[in-house]
Amino acid sequence: MVEKFKKKIKNICCIGGGYVGGPTMAVIADNCPDINVTVVDKNVERIKSWNDGDLTKLPVFEPGLEEIIKRVRNKNLFFSSDVDINISKADIIFLSVNTPTKTKGIGSGQASDLTWIEACARQVADAAKGHTIVVEKSTIPVRTAETVKKILESNNKDNSFSVLSNPEFLAEGTAINDLEMPDRILIGGEDHVAIELLSDIYRKWVDETKILKTNIWSSELSKLIANAFLAQRVSSINSVSAICEVTGANVQEVSKAVGFDSRIGNKFLNPGPGFGGSCFKKDILNLIYLCNYYGLSEVAKYWEQVININNWQQDRIYKTVVDKLFGTVYKKKIIILGFSFKANTNDTRESTSISISKNLINEGAHLLIHDPKVSSKQIAKDLEKEPLTENSNSAEVNNYGTWEYITNLENAFINVDAVIVLTDWKVYRNLDWNEISNQIRPPAWVFDTRLILNKNKIISSNLNYWGLGIG
Ligand code: UDX
Ligand code: UDX
Fold this sequence. Notes:
It is a single chain. This protein is an alpha/beta fold and 471 residues long. The chain has 2 domains: 11-213, NAD(P)-binding Rossmann-like Domain (Rossmann fold), CATH 3.40.50; 215-471, Rossmann fold (3-Layer(aba) Sandwich). Helices cover 41% and strands 14% of the residues. The protein has helices at residues 21-31, 44-50, 65-72, 83-89, 115-127, 144-153, 175-180, 192-203, 216-247, 251-259, 280-293, 297-324, 352-362, 376-383, 394-397, 433-439, 455-460, and strands at 11-15, 36-40, 77-80, 92-95, 130-136, 159-165, 185-188, 211-214, 333-337, 366-370, 402-405, 418-421, 445-448, 464-467. The strands form 3 sheets. A 6-stranded parallel beta sheet has the order 3-2-1-4-5-6, with helices on both faces. Strands 11-10-9-12-13-14 form a 6-stranded parallel beta sheet. Helix 16 (433-439) links the parallel strand 12 and strand 13. Helix 4 packs across helix 5, helix 9 (216-247) runs parallel beside helix 12 and helix 11 packs antiparallel against helix 12. The radius of gyration is 24 Å and the shape is globular. The model has no long low-confidence stretch (mean pLDDT 95). One uridine-5'-diphosphate-xylopyranose (UDX) binds next to helix 5.
C-alpha cells in the first residue's frame, strides 16, 4: 500500500500548456515560490515557444503574462516535453488538455471528445509514483472524473490516486487578473486530505471564504452551467439588438437601463456579432448532450436556442453587409477589423470573424483582414484558404473570393467599399474617419458590430453607418 498522506505539496505537473494551463501555472508558481511547477505538453513546438528568450513569442498572448514569466521561468516554473519524468515527480497533476466537440460517431457535434483526457489518464496511471492527486482543470462532461478514476485505478502498479475537479473560470484577455483575483475557486471531490492540500495552494493568495468545496459532480456541472448562463446573457442581448433595429430603440440604452436593475446586473450585456471562444459553444453542446442522454429533451431544446441565436446573429450580420452593398459584394474590397474572438487575445477559436469572413469570401468579396495579434498563418488555417500576397499569380488574384492580410491601417482604405468591426480591439476606437473617407470608394459603409466607433464622426465624414442594435 502506498503512503497516502503528503505533508506538503512540493511538485506540480500540468499536462497541457495552452490558454488555460500556461497562465494558470504561471500564477501558481508566482504565488508559491516553494513549489516547483512544470508544464508539459506533447506539442514540442509549443514548449519551445514557452521557453523562448523573446517573450513576444510566447504561444499565448495575455496582458501581464510576460512579466510573470520573466519573474518565475526557470526559477520555479518550467516548461518541458519530458512528460513521464515530470508525472513521476509530481505530487499533484493538473489535466489541462483540450476537449473538443466530437466530429464523428456517437454524440458527434455535441459530446466532448475525451480522447486526450483518456490518453493522459493512462499516461499518468503508468508513470506516476506513490500517491498522486489528479486534478481536472479542463472543462469536461459531467461524470468524467469517474472515467479518469477507473483508468487510474485499473493499473497494477504500486501507486494510488485521488481525483479532484477544479474547473478554471478565467476569461481570455483578462486571464492574469482573473487568476490573481478570482470570484471563487471551486474544488469538487471526496478525499478531504487531497481537497485541503489543493486548497493550501490557493490559500497563498485567495481568501478562504472564496474557496468552495462541493461533491465532484456539482463541481463539474457548475462549470458548464456558469458558461451556459453567461452565453445565455449574450444571446439574450443579441436577440434584443434585432428588436431594437426594427423598432427604433437603441440596444445600448436598453442594455444600460436593464442592467441597472441590481437583480440583473450590468455585466455580459454587450451586444455583438455573437459569442466565440473555446468554451461557450462546446460547453452548451455538452450540456445539451447530457440533457438528451437523460431524456430531458425540453431542457435540451431550451439551451439549444442559445446556440441558434448565436448562429443567427452571425448570419444576419453578413447578410446585412451584402444587402447594404446593393445585394452583391463580388470583387468588392471589404476591410475586416479584428479576427480574434474578443479583444486582448490571439485566440481565434469559434471567432465569429471566421464564419462572417467565410460567407463574404463565398459571395466573391476581396477581404483585407487586420488583427493586432492574430497571424496571417492562423487566419489562413481558420478560413481554409491561403491569402493573396505580392507573389500571387494572376489566376489567384482573379479567383472568386479572396483575402489579404494587412498589418498597417494607414492607406489601407484605398478603394474600399466597406469596413466591418468584428473584434473590440481598442486600436479601432480612434480611427481617423475624415482621412478614411478620402481613401474609400463612395458610397461606402461602416458596420460596427461591437458599438465601439464614434457614429457622429463617421456620419459627418460622409460615410454610411450601420450600428448593431441601433434603430
Ligand atoms: C482549455 C481547457 O483545458 C479546455 O477543457 C477548455 O474547454 C478550453 O480551454 P486550452 O488551454 O484553451 O483548453 O486549450 P489549448 O490551448 O488547446 O491547450 C491544450 C494543450 O494540451 C495543447 O497545447 C496540447 O498540445 C496539449 N495536449 C493535448 C497535451 O499535452 N497532451 C494531450 O494528450 C493532449
Ligand atoms: C469564458 C468564461 O467567461 C470563462 O469564465 C470560462 O472559463 C471560459 O469561457 P472566454 O471565452 O475567454 O471566457 O471569454 P468571455 O469574456 O466570456 O467572452 C466570450 C464571448 O462572448 C466573446 O466572443 C465575447 O466577445 C462575447 N461577449 C462577452 C459578448 O458578446 N458580450 C458580452 O457582454 C460579453
